[in-house]
Specification:
Elements: E1 5-10, H1 12-28, E2 32-37, H2 52-58, H3 63-68, H4 72-92, E3 98-103, H5 105-116, E4 124-128, H6 136-141, E5 147-150, H7 160-176, E6 191-196, H8 201-213, E7 217-222, H9 227-236, E8 242-245, H10 250-256, H11 269-273, E9 277-279, E10 286-287, H12 296-299, E11 303-305, E12 311-314, H13 317-331, E13 338-343, H14 360-373, E14 379-383, H15 390-403
Parallel strand pairs: 1-2, 1-3, 3-4, 4-5, 6-7, 6-8, 8-9, 9-13, 13-14
Antiparallel strand pairs: 10-12, 11-12
Length: 404
């Protein structure tokens, strides 16, 4: 069996002793460690397979420029760019099969940036002494399939406790690289990505079951800002054969700065890849600004409390029209077939007759604006049902049969 390579990312100027202990442990387990040194102040010649000078050059800089610069943000970015390029080249050449990092705040940020640039399914493990700091774990993981291991103790000099942490991490990554890679197209049934949220869970479940009965595999994503961004990243990698986007509310929340903000590139990856899409509108007629950001106008809006932490505010007609324009702009760029299916009697379980935010007449603002801006070949199909009604799920499945 071919020896599996494991990329080890560390700042050897500050974590050299610990990184080399990890390297030796990986080698003892029968794997081939490849050490990539992302030191910002190291002088090179540290024994790493990939030196800081090579990393700096790959990032469009030099070690001299890195050392002389007082702009830590810029030099960190340059070294990270270089490390990403090198890691991607090693992966494409079949020289690495997984990646592990060890470090504190800066090292963890840089190493996990590299990890997220590698495809889903490539084993990724980060040993970090700052994993539990408020807000840091979400920055390290973001949309990546990264296993984050909190060292608890500082990574500063070897001792029995730290050796135990590193030993466990080495065994973990050694085992992870033995997992069979994701099967590629032709070796499996078609993979369909599907966004969902609690307020359209019934629809999502029905559609999933229907697609599975037709021989598809369905991969679900919670469309709360991170999950749907991850779906976009994975679609861009070519992992999916189609998308059922039931809950693209991250588009309107990006426009207003809401908690479901899925970034500027939401609703774009599938179109660029040319894979078929079926789009609906769960949550698009509501916004979720942070309560600390509420204006007086927000406080006067119709609202629905999902729970004591989450509140949906009714989107204004102006926001609906603007969202429709952005939807059209993105979908018009699609190279594959697109169907848009919209319920006329509420866009989620939140959106039913008797609830304060229910307003199908205002929803038509979005529908009419979208229809007027979309390419003629992109059909907008309206269904006289609520999104959670069985008839609407059937309409989604019919659209899937047309394009998948």
């Amino acid at each position: 069996m071919k020896e599996k390579g494991i990329l080890l990312i560390a700042t050897l100027d500050t974590k050299g002793t610990e990184a080399f202990y990890l390297r030796d442990k990986i080698a003892e387990l029968g794997k081939r460690p490849v050490v990539l040194d992302i030191s910002l102040r190291g002088k090179g010649g540290t024994g790493a397979e990939i030196s800081p000078e090579e990393v700096a050059q790959a990032g469009g800089s030099s070690l001299k420029e890195i050392h002389e610069s007082g702009d830590r943000v810029a030099i960190t970015a340059a070294m990270t760019r270089g490390a990403i390029q090198i890691a991607q080249q090693l992966l494409e050449a079949g020289k690495i099969h997984g990646v592990i990092g060890i470090g504190g705040s800066t090292g963890s940020l840089m190493a996990t940036d590299v990890m997220r640039a590698l495809p889903f399914g490539i084993p990724k493990l980060m040993i970090s002494s700052t994993a539990a700091l408020p807000g840091m774990s979400t920055r390290y993981i973001d949309t990546g399939d990264i296993l984050l291991m909190h060292s608890v103790i500082e990574i500063s000099g070897l001792n029995d406790l730290l050796r135990n942490v590193i030993d466990r991490a080495a065994h973990a990554i050694a085992g992870m690289v033995e997992v069979a890679p994701i099967q590629r197209e032709g070796e499996r049934g078609k993979l369909i990505a599907m966004t969902m949220l609690g307020p359209c869970e019934k629809c999502a479940s029905s559609v999933r079951q229907g697609l599975e009965q037709r021989g598809f595999q369905v991969v679900g994503f919670s469309a709360a800002g991170i999950g749907d961004r991850a779906m976009e990243d994975m679609a861009a990698q070519g992992l999916f054969d189609g998308v059922v986007d039931l809950a693209p509310g991250g588009v309107i929340d990006h426009l207003i700065g809401g908690t479901r903000d899925a970034g500027p590139h939401r609703l774009e990856a599938a179109g660029r890849r040319g894979i078929p899409q079926v789009i609906s509108t769960c949550g698009v007629n509501h916004i979720t600004p942070r309560k600390t950001d509420y204006t007086d106008e927000h406080k006067r809006r119709r609202k629905y409390d999902l729970d004591r932490y989450r509140t949906w505010l009714r989107a204004s007609p102006e926001e609906l029209a603007r969202a429709a324009q952005v939807f059209a702009q993105k979908l018009n760029q699609a190279r594959g077939p697109v169907r848009v299916v919209i319920p006329l009697e509420g866009w989620s379980s939140v959106d039913r007759r008797g609830n304060e935010t229910y307003d199908p007449q205002e929803d038509l603002t979005f529908v009419q604006e979208l229809k007027s801006k979309l390419r003629p070949d992109i059909e907008v199909r309206t269904i006289a049902a609520n999104m959670e009604d069985p008839g609407f799920s059937q309409a989604i499945l019919e659209a899937c049969e047309e394009v998948f």
